[in-house]
Write a structure and sequence with these properties.
alpha/beta; Glucose Oxidase, domain 1; Enzyme I, Chain A, domain 2; 3 domains; 8-stranded mixed β-sheet; 8-stranded parallel β-barrel; 24 helices; binds phosphoenolpyruvate; binds magnesium ion
């Protein structure tokens, strides 16, 4: 046995995005760097300077790669900042002084470089000139990068991810997740988080295997460690042995063949064995996902989370920018419908373009989130409504409001929508005057007054992620209580039934667009409870369709009846599991 072989460590987390990934860790930490201080032997001094030169070259290459990526993902303007960073790396004063300090002190190059750089940062930040003060920030950023390279330590920005690696972080914010380069991220692992945290939803849409709730993984591994990510069972294996690699090779093969079995229904209708056609739609976050919607044959989009347009830019998108993004999706999918949800920021999704609008809150998930923030900022809201209305002229748009808690919010939103329409008429710009308007049901109060809300809108879409969070008082992003987040809870099942009934009493279609809709396991229960449509991450469509084609709606109704009569969530779960396994032919 190799005496240097590191031993294998198995860590159980929460399965968040299916798939298996094997690769080296890209440890992403926001904490401060620890710089060791030691004297370099005189005979190693030439090598130490070479090490410094090499680190400068590597950093330069890293920055060039990031620059290309940022230009592609954001804009050339935002990529310009990296020109300034390259200039710091070429600054002969900074480099020359570091080497002179090293030759004089004999201390390791990290210590010398950091000392000199900190002096520069201090000097620049005290200058009474905005441009020069900004140079201090550039030097700070570049210094950190060079030190990371020299120390082989964790990264401080996800934009540093340029090679194929597995991201390991304490947590990832939705805006950070939106900026991840999908071609470079092999997998995502976070200490915190749960199945419905927004970063996870992004991972799933990008088909990147993810495990969350890994507790202290960031403390247990080092940058560059080899990891196996099992996004099916929520397992992470650090330094897997040959035997484990072989075992996972076999698992991956079996999963692939299971997935190709699921994919075999991709082009077939989503119809139950007793002949009922079910509408399956897609959840998307960005215009470039239109291709996925088509690839997985979704009946249009049931949830377009517009906030990602706002999260991925440091500036608020203008009406024109929003219109361009919405039109691309709507025209790209016409005549299929696209349900555009108005801005849902707040909670775990900050607004980088104008952080003051929401500000710090003690309880953000119960704070100024979504429609509440929009109604307080009518101009911002109307800008979005105009952009959505204009896009409606290019296909079939449905508008949907998030986080509605009462009828008053729908009334106020309607007034602003009418104003937006009048403004467009005045400008002579086209829109669909008959655009349907729906309400998301994701707050318990909305579920209870479904009958009242139904009088004021055209459809319901249930956001189970938030509905369960608020119904059971379980923070959807907290891994410590993730086990309590239970869709089989009788309160959840009864509430879903009540929403479906109140929608149907008013002849409204009721859909589910939370993560529960994309979980084939729960699909029979939802359909049995009377849900008419399901909307999910496009990649999950084949599994849901496969199950629908293998079941009878009459059996699903029986399942729902039994589940409603059940008092113990564990027994409900067992009923649902048996139904699923039987149809999917899982042992
Ligand atoms: C939900 O809450 O279920 C939902 C679909 O919205 P989001 O996940 O964006 O909060
Ligand atoms: Mg929600």
């Amino acid at each position: 046995m190799d005496p240097n072989a590191k031993s294998e460590v198995v860590i159980q987390g929460i399965a968040a995005s299916k798939g298996i990934a094997y690769g080296q860790a890209f440890l992403y930490l926001q904490s401060e760097l620890e710089i060791p201080r030691y004297t370099v032997d005189p005979d190693k001094r030439i090598a130490e300077i070479a090490r410094f030169d090499q680190a400068l070259v590597v950093t330069r290459q890293q920055i060039s790669k990031i620059q290309v990526q940022v230009t592609k993902n954001l804009s050339e303007e935002e990529a310009l900042i990296f020109d300034a960073h390259q200039m710091v790396l070429e600054d002969q004063a900074l480099i020359g002084e570091t080497i002179r300090d090293f030759e004089k002190s004999g201390l390791n190059i990290e210590t010398c470089f950091n000392n000199i750089a900190q002096r520069y940062i201090q000097a620049f930040s005290e200058i009474d000139d905005e441009y020069l003060r900004e140079r201090a920030a550039d030097i700070k950023d570049v210094t950190k990068r060079v030190l990371h390279v020299l120390l082989g330590q964790a990264a401080t920005s996800l934009t540093e991810l340029v090679e194929k690696r597995i991201i390991v972080a304490h947590d990832i914010s939705p805006s950070e997740a939106a900026g991840i380069d999908r071609s470079a991220a092999l997998g995502i692992l976070t200490d915190a988080g749960s199945r419905t945290s927004h970063a996870v939803i992004v991972a799933r849409s990008m088909k990147i295997p993810a495990v969350v709730g890994t507790s202290d993984l960031t403390k247990r591994i080092k940058n560059g460690d080899w990891l196996m990510v099992d996004g099916y069972d929520g397992v992470v294996i650090v330094n897997p042995t040959e035997h484990t690699l072989f075992r996972y090779g076999a698992i991956q093969k079996a999963k692939k063949s299971f997935e190709s079995r699921l994919m075999s229904v991709n082009d077939l209708p989503a119809e139950t064995l007793d002949g009922v056609a079910i509408t399956l739609r897609a959840n998307i976050e960005k215009p470039d996902e239109v291709a996925l919607v088509k690839q997985y044959r979704a009946d249009g989009v049931g949830l377009y989370r517009t906030e990602f347009l706002f999260l991925s830019s440091m500036k608020m998108p203008t009406e024109e920018q929003q219109y361009a993004a919405y039109r691309e999706i709507v025209a790209g999918l016409a005549p299929a419908p696209v349900t555009i949800r108005t801005l849902d920021v707040g909670g775990d999704k900050p607004l980088p373009g104008d952080p003051q609008l929401i500000g710090p809150e003690a309880n953000p998930f119960m704070g100024l989130r979504a429609i509440r923030m929009c109604l307080e900022n009518p101009e911002l809201f109307k800008t979005q409504l105009r952009a959505i209305l204009r896009a409606s002229a290019h296909g079939r748009v449905e508008l949907m409001y998030p986080m509605i808690s009462g009828t008053d919010e729908l009334d106020r939103a309607r007034v602003l929508l009418e104003e937006a329409k009048a403004e467009l008429k005045k400008r002579g710009q086209a829109f669909d005057a008959k655009m349907r308007v729906g309400t998301m049901i994701e707050i318990p109060s909305a579920a209870i007054i479904g009958d009242l809300l139904a009088e004021k809108c055209d459809f319901f879409s249930i956001g189970t992620n938030d509905l369960i969070q608020y119904l059971l008082a379980i923070d959807r992003g907290n891994n410590r209580i993730a086990h309590l987040y239970d869709p089989s809870h009788p309160a959840v099942i009864r509430t879903l039934k009540q929403i479906a009934d109140s929608g149907h009493a008013a002849k409204l279609k009721v859909s589910v667009c939370g993560e529960m809709a994309g979980d084939a396991f729960y699909v029979p229960l939802l359909l049995g409870l009377g849900i008419d449509e399901l909307s999910m991450t496009p990649t999950l469509l084949p599994s849901v369709k496969f199950l629908i084609r293998a079941m009878k709606l009459s059996d699903a109704k029986k399942l729902a009846k039994d589940a409603l009569a059940q008092t113990d969530p564990k027994k409900t779960h067992a009923l649902v599991e048996a139904f699923y396994n039987e149809r999917m032919m899982v042992e």
